[in-house]
Amino acid sequence: MDATVVAVSRNEEYSFTKPNQESVTLLAGLGVEGDVHAGVTVKHRSRVAADPTRPNLRQVHLIHSELFDELASAGYMVAPGELGENITTQGVDLLGLPTGTLLRLGEEAVVEVTGLRNPCLQIDGFQRGLLRQVVGRDEAGDVVRKAGVMSVVRTGGVVRPGDTVTITLPAEPHRPLEKV
Question: In 3D, which of 98, 107, 120, 76 has the Cα closest to residue 178?
Fold first, then answer.
């Protein structure tokens, strides 16, 4: 299966979900043009409250559409953009990528994966019990986060559904993703 963009989403206002768009424009060093989370410094409310001067490592949120299939098998219907992601992919093991992986989205845009999304209690406000589906523990008792990855924009460009996703791994040794 080819790695592709399934949907692109943005929202100019703080809201849990993000409406799907025909295209989004990624701006180098900032994020998604017209999205509330775009900027050089942190934009997520909890992070702004803690330290508004910290760099924004969460400019673009990506989720793999395969997660929606997994959630559906557990009785949760979720569509692209509804978990607050900007880009929904298919055919990319986002959670298995190392920190620093570059993802070319379409012809121009490139994002660098910075870490795992750490979903908050708002997700249960969207659908009760959903948080336990996207954050759990493995057999060893370690926390497993499945709600996608965060990234920063290295090269700007327009991204559309149907665009190809090209993966460039960083030099070894690879560092596993951690929450950001």
Answer: 98
